[in-house]
Design brief:
Radius of gyration: 15 Å
Number of strands: 12
CATH superfamily: Metallo-dependent phosphatases
Strand content: 35-45%
CATH topology: Purple Acid Phosphatase, chain A, domain 2
Number of domains: 1
Helix content: 10-25%
Structural class: mainly beta
Shape: globular
Strand order of the largest sheet: 3-2-1-9-10-11-12
Number of helices: 3
Length: 187
């Protein structure tokens, strides 16, 4: 059975706007789950995903209400994959892979935000995905971005989606990583 996850981070919004609802209805339309990797700014941002199971963590720009209601870090298991979700402030982002593997070696997949720089990286049996920022990215070649993960029994496909100007309704897959998997492990 195929499982699709929509990954978003760093929305920095007071409420869900029409662009975020549009993301849910287009890029995330086949996703059963949406994961927000922090810096929502307001819990109302999650209203954009009414038809999805939603998991979210708080980030460094989130106020008291968000931090009171969302954990700093969350774990989830999907299709045998152990996922750690965090915003990642407090970790040296130059060595984040080594730091997280050392501290959380029981997990296979690390989803994080904070840097506003989209990234997919495989380190040994671990995969790291940062969807970048829905509000703005700190790279010269992308506007806003999100992530998609497609899981089935034999493989996992990780994607960074360049959202461009959402009003243009033109999305491009910017980066893809295909990984074989078995019993929760990536190869």
């Amino acid at each position: 059975m195929k499982e699709i996850l929509g990954i978003v981070s760093d929305t920095h919004m007071a409420r869900a706007d029409e662009d975020l609802f549009f993301l849910n209805d287009t890029v995330f339309k086949d996703a059963s789950t949406v994961i927000h990797c922090g810096d929502l700014t307001n819990l109302a941002v999650l209203d954009a995903f009414p038809d999805k199971e939603v998991f979210a963590v708080s980030g460094n720009m989130d106020g008291y209400d968000v931090r009171k209601n969302l954990p700093f870090m969350e774990t989830k298991e999907v299709s045998g994959i152990k996922i750690l979700i965090l915003h990642s402030e407090g970790y040296n982002n130059k060595n984040i892979f080594d730091s997280l593997i050392k501290e959380f070696s029981d997990y296979n997949l690390f989803l994080y935000g904070h840097t506003h720089k989209p990234l997919i990286n495989k380190v040994g049996k671990y995969v790291f995905l940062n969807p970048g920022s829905f509000s703005y990215n700190r790279t010269g070649d992308l506007n806003r971005s999100a992530g998609l993960i497609e899981l089935d029994d034999e493989k996992a496909v990780f994607k960074i989606v360049d959202l461009g100007k959402i009003s243009d309704k033109k999305f491009k897959i910017k980066e893809v990583l295909n990984v074989r998997r078995s019993k929760g492990n990536f190869f």
